[in-house]
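Quiz preparation item.
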């Protein structure tokens, strides 16, 4: 240490860990935490203070300030990193915020499955069973497919399909469908790592059934049609429809897989998403398997659903990599329960993701006005307005469709909007918003039960 820091009176006034813990004890500060954690929090606090002092920041080292800061540090260390936050962004399936909010019944099923459960055992015989047999039964009933299963996510399902049908062979995909879902998940790389060779057909904007037909040869393992989830090719375009491609594949005796991505089961479940293809249409066209995510428009847990012909699904199940991508029992329970909600016929209301997508502008205007009034009442320092704008489905679903909504805009004198948004993210409970035109915007579309009160609490704790 140099003489300058040694001479800093604030540094010399920093508390000693043991003395501070004794002080907290004698002041009867009630933090419900084991000793090791109390000590670690004290050490962390002193370290942070030291950094702030040497960084030239003025710090409050009074007894009360230190005790309050320590209590907050203990709480922060105890808090689960995935504790509940408020999604006020207006993006219904927000990947950064965990995509689909699970149906209540699915959460209850996860809790049940968290203890001992009959995961892989036949109750009748007591013999070993299959963990996906109930999912298969539900998919058969729901979609009219011959068989079905589910793996960790749709990325896993795609890789597994490529690897099962085209290991050492060629996969034919349209140039217009070589999607990047995000990060390193790009279709050409997935095909390559799946052990196959990509054969691109057509052009970026136009691909015809004939292009696939002429690309088929002795080395062909699979034809794959990929839903361009997060973008649209517009203008002078043409693409081969799934039924056309199924005909081409059948004639050549080549398997065909449809990677649908977002997984809206039927149009009537979300009428606002007009151009979103459905699982029902995909399955009706008859590819060997249709693949889709569990946590996009199905509104369930993260999973990759594989539904289709019995022989094709059995081949995928028989791939040694299947085991490496299988679902955990709690996720299986949530997925099973989500599928049951669709079978029960009221999913547009009981599955929160769908319920939120279907909220009408009339309902959203009155919710925005009610929220605005509450905010103004509880925080008079805020400037509160409401304004119509657009929400999004998110997660690459219906990327060009804006859903009409009404948002609450807040601003605070002397606090830039980005700073206000940051304070709300760091407060407890954390609130995630959007910033536009120097205001922070809260979209009632993505709020769940109790979230309005959480926002008020967050503002109080900010
Ligand atoms: C989202 C998506 C994927 C990846 O699905 P995850 O469930 O996120 O792994 C793959 N393909 C398409 C077409 C998608 O839209």
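Solution:
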């Amino acid at each position: 240490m140099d003489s300058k820091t040694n001479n800093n009176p604030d540094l010399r006034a920093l508390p000693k860990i043991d003395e501070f813990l004794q002080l907290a004890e004698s002041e009867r500060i009630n933090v419900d935490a084991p000793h090791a954690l109390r000590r670690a929090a004290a050490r962390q606090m002193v370290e942070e203070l030291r950094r702030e002092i040497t960084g030239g920041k003025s710090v409050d080292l009074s007894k009360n300030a230190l005790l309050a800061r320590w209590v907050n540090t203990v709480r922060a260390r105890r808090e689960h990193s995935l504790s509940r936050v408020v999604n006020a962004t207006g993006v219904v399936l927000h990947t950064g915020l965990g995509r689909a909010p699970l149906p209540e019944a699915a959460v209850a099923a996860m809790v049940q499955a968290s203890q001992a459960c009959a995961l892989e055992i036949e109750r009748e015989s007591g013999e070993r069973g299959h963990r996906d047999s109930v999912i298969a039964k539900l998919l058969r009933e729901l979609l009219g497919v011959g068989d079905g299963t589910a793996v960790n996510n749709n990325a896993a399902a795609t890789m597994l399909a490529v690897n099962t049908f085209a290991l050492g062979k060629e996969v034919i995909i349209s140039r217009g469908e070589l999607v990047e879902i995000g990060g390193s998940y790009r279709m050409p790389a997935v095909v390559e790592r799946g052990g196959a060779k990509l054969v691109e057909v057509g052009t970026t904007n136009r691909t015809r059934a004939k292009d696939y037909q002429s690309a088929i040869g002795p080395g062909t393992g699979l034809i794959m049609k990929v839903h361009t989830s997060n973008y649209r090719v517009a203008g002078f375009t043409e693409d081969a429809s799934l039924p056309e491609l199924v005909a081409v594949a059948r004639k050549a005796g080549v398997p065909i897989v449809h990677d649908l991505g977002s997984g809206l089961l039927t149009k009537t479940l979300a009428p606002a998403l007009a151009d979103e293809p459905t699982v029902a249409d995909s399955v009706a066209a008859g590819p060997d398997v249709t693949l889709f995510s569990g946590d996009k428009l199905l509104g369930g847990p993260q999973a990759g659903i594989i539904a289709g012909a019995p022989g094709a699904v059995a081949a995928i199940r028989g791939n040694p990599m299947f085991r490496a991508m299988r679902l955990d029992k709690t996720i299986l329970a949530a997925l099973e329960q989500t599928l049951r909600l669709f079978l029960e016929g009221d999913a547009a209301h009981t599955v929160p993701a769908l319920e939120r997508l279907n909220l009408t502008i009339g309902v959203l205007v009155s919710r925005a006005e009610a929220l605005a009034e509450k905010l103004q009442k509880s925080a008079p320092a805020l400037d509160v307005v409401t304004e119509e704008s657009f929400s999004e489905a998110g997660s690459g679903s219906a990327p060009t469709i804006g859903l009409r909504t009404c948002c609450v805009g807040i601003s605070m004198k002397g606090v830039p909007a980005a700073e206000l948004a940051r304070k709300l993210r760091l407060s407890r409970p954390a609130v995630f918003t959007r910033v536009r035109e120097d205001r922070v915007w809260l979209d009632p579309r993505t709020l769940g039960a109790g979230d309005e009160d959480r926002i008020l609490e967050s503002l109080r704790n900010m």
